[in-house]
């Protein structure tokens, strides 16, 4: 597991903990089950999905692991279930919002609604009709993207799963599994406490049947990962919506940073807001103790950038050195979104870097 920072760590899982990840209903069945494996089997989600599929008597298609071919392979394999991290759903949403912005630039409100329906139907075909459920997991998802998924892929159920390599599955559609022991621990330095109203908030601590034994050859990290009474520190900040089981992941404990005026900022939360800009394909929010406002690195959507250049007669538009008018337009759009979402001044980027090279895991 790589976590959110630092070098990857090897999580040791006992045989009994590993077996606990596969429910008793995993038996051969007449119900068709087909999966697509498109990530390395070191990735627990894909490995467990394959084993579950085989236990149920299903079939698995293996991809070339070329990201650019994923949609093509999805159409070829036609899985009955498909799960993916936010990065993939964000990419689909980015293409949708850009297409919508381009075709509705001069449209009336009624025409915009009609075009949106048409595009939703067009994009829904990315997930084959045989697929009965799709899931998003492995990181915090933007509510905007999740809402888009539910509106677009109406032919299958849309679900949100939450689990960690070290603990296995924890919740599904925000409901903690009844076998999981959990509690919240206040993180006052980030402004989250179990006394918060209307919902208690804090770091989620768990004990599960799938809990790992520790990090290989890393006793320091192992000790830091557990409380004295054996609960695992997930590093995720959640709010407890009801007295039991209903949670929402709202932040990452290790992802926040502090600005010069003492304000703590959660970059993931801001990134999930600014992704709604039609200019934005990907965005990274940055800040440090020398800054009084956040800044951003923006990977623009190329189609939208080219349309902007054409509309504003930027004849020599260079992606390696974007025109100042384009940079200002992106910055202004982020400012308008920040104001619409009632963000504080220091949460709105004062400076941006434009880079058309997409982010990679490296």
TrEMBL record:
<dbReference type="InterPro" id="IPR042099">
    <property type="entry name" value="ANL_N_sf"/>
</dbReference>
<dbReference type="InterPro" id="IPR000873">
    <property type="entry name" value="AMP-dep_synth/lig_dom"/>
</dbReference>
<protein>
    <recommendedName>
        <fullName>long-chain-fatty-acid--CoA ligase</fullName>
        <ecNumber>6.2.1.3</ecNumber>
    </recommendedName>
</protein>
<dbReference type="GO" id="GO:0016020">
    <property type="term" value="C:membrane"/>
</dbReference>
<dbReference type="GO" id="GO:0005524">
    <property type="term" value="F:ATP binding"/>
</dbReference>
<keyword id="KW-0067">ATP-binding</keyword>
<keyword id="KW-0443">Lipid metabolism</keyword>
<keyword id="KW-0547">Nucleotide-binding</keyword>
<dbReference type="GO" id="GO:0004467">
    <property type="term" value="F:long-chain fatty acid-CoA ligase activity"/>
</dbReference>
<dbReference type="GO" id="GO:0005783">
    <property type="term" value="C:endoplasmic reticulum"/>
</dbReference>
<keyword id="KW-0276">Fatty acid metabolism</keyword>
<keyword id="KW-0436">Ligase</keyword>
<dbReference type="Pfam" id="PF00501">
    <property type="entry name" value="AMP-binding"/>
</dbReference>
<feature type="domain" description="AMP-dependent synthetase/ligase">
    <location>
        <begin position="1"/>
        <end position="215"/>
    </location>
</feature>
